[in-house]
Structure formats: structure tokens, C-alpha cells
Batch of 2 targets.
Target 1
Amino acid sequence: MDALSSKRQQSRAARAGKTAATVLRADFYSCSSVELAPRLLNKLLVVRSEEGLASGRIVEVEAYDQFDPAAHSFRGPTPRCEVMFGVGGVLYVYRSYGIHWCANVVCGPPGHGAAVLLRALEPVSGIRLQRDRRASAQRATDLCSGPGKLCQALGLSGADNGAALTRPRGRLVLLDDGDPPPRLPAQGVRVGISKATERPWRWWIDGSPHVSRGDGIRTARASKS
DNA sequence: GGTAAGATCAGC
DNA sequence: CTGATCTTACCA
């Protein structure tokens, strides 16, 4: 284990038992997606289902906004993205490439179409369940290291579109367990889009092996000829 | 009604 | 690098 992740786990352990996890309230989501995105880092997403409970710590996010050519909300509310224009603190889930699901956290005031795409999680609980749902995953770092993967691992689907993250006993809960966002998260351009590609609206936990593209650990590695 | 592109992933 | 797989949004 490298020094960075070791330090991170120690500080996390030091807080264990001292800090009760709290459900993030609606006002947490009243800001812009560019503000919310880095604040979501290290928050805990919990999903309850008949099969059991599964959760993960957010390690990579991307911001999307109504005035952003890359966003689904750019051309106004459509049947697909209308929840982006609703109240914050709910999930926007859409079908990607006809195959996968991708989950976003809606934010900003009602009427403004903004959301933060959850791109990667560090699996925390229900690992067995997550492995069952993702048979192709060879390692723990394959479980939630991508927007489609994390939805599969946590059992998120279109049925969760518009569901609240703020109800303590709800199926979906976003928790602050005392682990703050990094003071200096890694930041870069977004992945997989063809418009507004220059906006540096992607943030991740520097050094995390659970991010979607290995950016956190490959930054020191040069191109191999 | 037709169509092109897509906020991805896994396997070769 | 490519195929899978299908919904969405836009155009006629």
C-alpha cells in the first residue's frame, strides 16, 4: 500500500466511532454542479435492496450543467432528462449506449438542469453482493471503477430515476461519515464526451486505485513506447 | 417514420 | 481496437 492511501485509511479509522454518519440534507444540493462535484468526493452512497445492502465511497465525479453543450439538459427538459430540472438531492439515471445505466446527483434550484455524474466508487460494504452482480470483475478495483460498473454493482437502474437521496430510511441514501473531501482533489477534463471537451469538470481522489481510468495512479508513469 | 450518435464496457 | 445493443432526439 502506498503512503497516500495508507494515510487516508488511518485518518478514516481515527474517526471511526467518533463521528456518527449523517444523511446529507436537501440544502447540500442547492449549489451548482461545479461546486457540488468536488464536495461529493468521499461521501458514501448506500443502496438497500431485497438482496441486501451495498455501499461505496465516491472517488470520481463529473459536473454537467444546463449551459453546457455536453449535458443532456442543454436543449431544455426532455422526457429523459426532466429530473435534472427538478429538486436537488435526487438521482438522475439514464441508459447509456443501450446497455448500461449511469447515475447522477441532481443539484441546483428547480428549473435549472444540472447534475453530477458518479463515475467511480470505492466499494465499502456488500462486497459479496457487488461481486455477484458483476461476475466479470476480477478485482475489487473492477467493481465500481466506471459509471456503468457502479450502477451494476449497486443494483441501480432506471427504476431509481428521480429517487431521493435525502430520506434516512429510503432505498438510496447519501451519507457524510466524517471523511471530508480532499483539500486538493485531482482535476481534469471529462471522459467520453465530444462537446465542451475542454472544460475541466472532472474531479477524483488523487491516488485512488478505484477511479475509472487509473489516472490517480498512472500520473507518474510515462508513456510506454 | 428514419436515422445517427451516444456522459460505456469487455474481450480480443 | 472493436462489437454489443437500443434509446433518445432530431429531421423529414
Target 2
Amino acid sequence: METPSTDPAPVRVRGLPSWLLTQTAASAHRLVSGGLGAVGARGYHFRLLATLDESGPTSQAALGRHSGIHLSDIVATLNELAEQDLVERSPDPVDRRRNVITITPAGKRKLRHLEKVIVQVQDELLEPLSNEEREQLVRLLTRLLDHHGRG
Amino acid sequence: METPSTDPAPVRVRGLPSWLLTQTAASAHRLVSGGLGAVGARGYHFRLLATLDESGPTSQAALGRHSGIHLSDIVATLNELAEQDLVERSPDPVDRRRNVITITPAGKRKLRHLEKVIVQVQDELLEPLSNEEREQLVRLLTRLLDHHGRG
DNA sequence: CTAATTTCAGTCAAACTGACATAC
DNA sequence: CGTATGTCAGTTCGACTGAAATTA
């Protein structure tokens, strides 16, 4: 129920980059989930709304390519967003396989709200680091991400 | 099935530390899972065996405190490890609530094997970074982890 | 025919919750 | 009594798989 008050891990584990990454990611996930959950959203909702807002109306397949979210999850997440009238699904007249997904005004409002939450969470997450250190971390992680994910 | 060949994320998302962390952690998890999965293990197995090897025979509750794994997951993971004779569960004579968990010789052999796998994976994970950068990353993540996780 | 798009029905690992029986 | 321990059954989120139907 509550945080146990002891060692995070054995020596052979706690120095491992992969462990440090997954653990700090778990912290980040706790913070993000907490923040978004407090306003009835979760990570995929934010990521999809942000992707959609940036790309303009698109197909679900394109949404998948631009968000890094799997197509099957796109379908499910869009169902949830559409139910709240944050996005609109309409058939594409020029290609009848496709749906055109559009973010609604309510969706844009929600997105702006979620963005505020997310920004606050970043600050909580990075609290112990100076500005230079934060930038350093972002640069290092970006390099790792650029390298993998083209695999 | 295969990697989509496009943008990882929209601008408002791809600079977020929380997103970078969870995505690099996902890469790390893919690599670790792949490596461990190839020898029939997963993260909890390695972490528990390592914790156990370091602490010597202990109770499950202590194991939970020292590994950062939830008690309920400890139970399930120990069931799996015991089934493969990598650990032994025996009742504690001085406190009959407790089980004393001991790593077996086979468990130690397995642990040594898993360690090799894990070390290789670290190198794959950090490939694009210099040694100094790797140390930097480890320091920054450790600071974050020390800060959070104390509640 | 092949290829792209959407949908559905799953799996999986990790983290976590709540309840319960037992023993200290 | 309250607290610690072990067990079980369950959820959540994110990532992922496989298959099917439709249309280009």
C-alpha cells in the first residue's frame, strides 16, 4: 500500500543503466498517471490529442505513424476520445478505407489543460536537477532514442 | 509487427523528459526482455535472484524491501523460481509466519548466466554514448531515483 | 494480385490494490 | 490488542501480436 522504507535494490542491480531507466521511468509514469488521472485522462489520450492537434485531420494509420502508438491501441483510444466528444471520426470520401479523425474544440481545450498538467509534472520529476543538468539529461536520452527506434 | 518508419512523436511530446524517459525505458525493456527471454527468464527473476544472492537467505517480506518488488509479485515470482529449483522455500523455525528463501547452486549458476546477458544488453543500450556520457547519465538518473522513491 | 486501412480479440511484463488467514 | 507475514485474486497502463474484413 505504501512505500517500503529501504534499499531500492542490490548493488549488482542498482548501477545498471537499464534498471535506472526503467525505475525512473516508473517514477515518471506514476507522476504522469497521477496528474492525468486526476482529470480523467491517461498517457495515450494526451499523446493522441497532441499528435492530432499538430497534424490536423488525418487517418488513423497516419496517427499511428506520427504518435508511435500501435494501431490497435489507436482504435481503442479514439473510441474513448470520441465518446467524450474530444475527437470526431468521419469517413474519408476519397478513400473509403479510411476514417478522418478531427480534434474538436472541446478536444483542444482538453489538450491545453492536459499540457499544463504535464508541464507541472516535468518540474516535479526533475526537481533535484539544475537547468543545465536537465538539458544534459534530455540530450542524452534523445541520443539514445534516436539510436534505437530505427532498429 | 514491424517498426513504422516515421516520426516518433509530435513536437510537444518529443521534448518532454517524462516521455523521453518512458520511451528509452521501453527500449531498455525490449532489449532486456529479449535477452532474458532467450534464456527463459524475465526481469523479476533476475532482480530477485540478485537480491537473494546478495542478502543471503531471507524472508519474502525482506526480499520485497530489498528488491523494490511488490510482495504479491514476490510470491508469484518465487513460485516460478522454486519450480525450476533455482530457490528453496523453507519454514523459518524461529518465526513461523516466515518462509526462509535460499538460492540454490542451480540458482547461482543461472544468476551468473543472466548477469552476462544483462551486461551485454547495457552495452547495446548505451552504444551511442561515450564512457563519460554513460557515467553522466547514470549519475543523473541516480539523483532522480534518490529523490523520488523516498515518498 | 498485392498492399493499406480499420477493427477486434487477445497476450505480456511490470507495478500496484485489497482482502484474508496466520502468527508474532 | 495491533502489527508483520504470506497468499490469492484482481486491476491498470503501455506495448505488442494475429487475424479478419474492406477497399485501393
